[in-house]
């Protein structure tokens, strides 16, 4: 039994809120074509408010889902970005697991999200949930 399966992009998220909870967590030094050839994945075409893109959505054995996505206008050739819920308890461990499941390693990455960026995302989410305006400077006591 496989420890991952490809699912339709239409089954990736249940709501628009859930869609926006996914964030780039790493970039692979492999194109969608290379990933298709190596892993047998099928990339679907779609678009959003940024550009047209190719996407493959993966579900792993614990129910976590992540996507492999490449925007048409991406400036760096031969790359695919991993999008996943950034609020998960341990993004670095999850990324390591995603790579392992795909038979890849950190050597296949050209970039990964920093701990500082994850902390900022969590702080911004906490402010939004509390109703604070994150764009306005906070008054100092």
Give structural notes:
The chain is an alpha+beta fold and 141 residues long. It has a single domain (4-130), classed as TATA-Binding Protein. It has helices spanning 16-20, 32-39, 91-101, 115-130, and strands at 4-7, 22-28, 44-47, 52-60, 65-71, 80-85, 109-112. Strands 1, 2, 3, 4, 5, 6 and 7 form a 7-stranded antiparallel β-sheet that branches. Strand 4 (52-60) and strand 5 form a beta hairpin. The longest helix has 16 residues, at 115-130. The protein is globular and about 45 Å long. The chain starts with a strand and ends in an 11-residue tail after the last helix. The model has no long low-confidence stretch (mean pLDDT 86).
Topology:
Layout: E1 4-7, H1 16-20, E2 22-28, H2 32-39, E3 44-47, E4 52-60, E5 65-71, E6 80-85, H3 91-101, E7 109-112, H4 115-130
On the 0 to 100 scale, the average pLDDT is: 86
Q: Which regions are unreliable across 5 or more consecutive residues at pLDDT < 50?
A: none
Quick one: how many beta strands?
7
Count of discrete domains: 1
CATH class: Alpha Beta
Q: What string gives the helices and strands in order? A: EHEHEEEEHEH
The appropriate CATH architecture is 2-Layer Sandwich
Counting H and I runs of at least 4 residues, what is the number of helices? 4
The major beta sheet can be summarized as: 7 strands, antiparallel
Helicity level, as a percent range? 25-40%
- Secondary-structure content class: alpha+beta
CA gyration radius, whole angstroms: 16 Å
The shape, in one word, is: globular
């Amino acid at each position: 039994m496989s420890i991952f399966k490809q699912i339709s992009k239409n089954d990736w998220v249940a709501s628009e809120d859930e869609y926006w909870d996914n964030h780039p967590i790493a970039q692979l030094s492999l194109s969608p074509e290379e990933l298709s050839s190596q892993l047998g994945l099928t990339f679907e075409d779609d678009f959003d408010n940024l550009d047209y893109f190719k996407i493959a959505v993966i579900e792993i054995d614990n129910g976590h889902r992540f996507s492999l996505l490449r925007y048409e206008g991406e400036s760096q050739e031969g790359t695919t970005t991993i999008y996943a819920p950034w609020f998960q308890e341990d993004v670095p461990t999850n990324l390591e697991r995603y790579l392992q499941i795909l038979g890849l390693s950190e050597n296949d990455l050209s970039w990964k999200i920093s701990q500082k960026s994850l902390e900022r995302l969590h702080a911004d989410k906490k402010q939004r949930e509390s109703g604070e305006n994150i764009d306005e400077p906070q008054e100092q006591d």
